[in-house]
């Protein structure tokens, strides 16, 4: 079975993701998690320590992240085979309406990596603006606005969009 590497939003998030893992297994994929180490119980704004951790664990792999996990995958999984970025968090240098953010441009990713970019149709303008900018950044991408979905990985339409992305990766 093919392998999907999941970048969680925070360390030790595996238990919260168990329903998603079960869904991915039912779609015919194995899963593994990137193991993150960060000080404190919040995202390490102002530090780039997390991105090399992601890169070291994702080389040559199909990688998926949602929200902050998508941001970590986008900036960290620079040698991944493919990215699935769900509702990427808008905490980049360009997101000056966010007081807490990384002072790193979304352009610091690897534009040569193929990517699926997803965003819920009901998410706010800021989420759509960032998703569209990331979409335009990648040279080889598929962009999906998930119908009737907000910022919710568990929404049935969101899960279906991820399954569609996984099915495309499985195709020869």
From TrEMBL:
SUPFAM superfamilies: alpha/beta-Hydrolases. It comes from the Bacteria. InterPro entries: AB_hydrolase_fold. This is Alpha/beta hydrolase. It comes from Horticoccus luteus.
